[in-house]
Amino acid sequence: MSSPIPVNIDTDNPAVITSGLRKYYRRNRALEKLDLTVPEGAVYLLVGPNGSGKTTTMKILLDLVRPGEGSAKVFGFSPIADGPLVRAQIGYVPEGRIPGYEWMRIDHLLAHHAVYYPAWDEAYARSLITVLEIDLKKKFQKLSKGESRRVQLVMALAHRPPLLLLDEPMDGLDPVVRDRVIELLAAHLAETPTTVLASTHHIQELEKLADHLGVIRAGTLLAQSDTTTLHTRLKRYRIEAAADWTAPESLTDAIVRRNGSGPELALDIWGEEATVTSALAGSGSTVRQVSALALEETAVSLLAGQEKP
Amino acid sequence: MPIVFTIDPADARPIYVQIMDEVRRGLAVGTLAPDEPLPSVRQLAAELRINPNTVQQAWRELEREGLIYVRRGQGTFVARTARPDRERTIISRQVAERALRDAFRHGLSRAELITELEQIEPAETDITDQTEKTDTKGAD
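Above: the input entities. Below: the structure tokens describing the complete assembly.
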């Protein structure tokens, strides 16, 4: 038996699909056979340790970086063959600062940016500027990390693109602004049909917006699924078992993570709750509690589980 | 908004079910009355910082159950056919199941839980006080 954790998403309408993406920067691996599927209309959280390939993936979708092997499609178009067409569909919040415009005042920077997007909604841009308390007279180079992130959010949202690529959108924002950003993203999704691919280390803040999760490590997806499936299939079982207890054979591949050394154990197990519970009970343990995992715990469990030999 | 929706992503219930249960709670407690307007998808999604599709799913399911109705262009409202007593029964069953699960987690039997429930003095804490008040209101 092999691992039951899903790594593929079935959809007739992928907004983003990559197959076998591989990318090395000299000898450093960024991506190793990445097969990512973001269904149209999804809010997909891409989660993984630093250097696992999240930023490289987004850059390949924008054709800011070219893969060594494999291919990517955005709304059916190749970023390499149809770069301008693809980029026009995307609102991008990059991880770092935008280079090249350090000397510009924010109002000029936004006006300059708007020219490139026929769909730019000036009234919406102004309301975002107000909500995010952006000082238009400041120069871009004078902005703190959080301030430049807020400007980048306006640039990404105000032309209401069909696809948003958000690379650590909460980075550098204070707690009040983070909350406000999540609120305005929720409102944005209600008003504008949008697909979102977001990388984040702050899963907890975005989990209520997310409906898909991808867990990435060393350039490969360990898991990829809609969050409803994850929420119903991966659960934590707290059991009491004798010292010589071993997990039933039917569950060996389904146990994602194990905590405790007995007699109490906490096991994160993939499967249907009734089946898992009866398998555990049949193996002579007492199941005390079955609990659902928050998305952050799910991601941590899947990442930590892969560390076992 | 007539009621304050409270949700918890770590809860075993999916978020759309939690929203549905919040509407039931409003009906049972009496803070939601027939023909009362419910928040729009955009409003509730922004308020709870959740995906608008989740609100849509909750509204869809509640409409299917006949608890709410949608009037095109005007919004979503509590149905006149909604029966608070029925929702009350559903909620008390859920609360009882949660209590039983919690008791079992702590190694307690159903009998031990019931004994303890009966021994709690109504005035012992503020929370039970409020529960008692609501109970009286519900009995009217």
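Note for the figure: Strands of chain B lie at 37-38, 68-71, 75-78.
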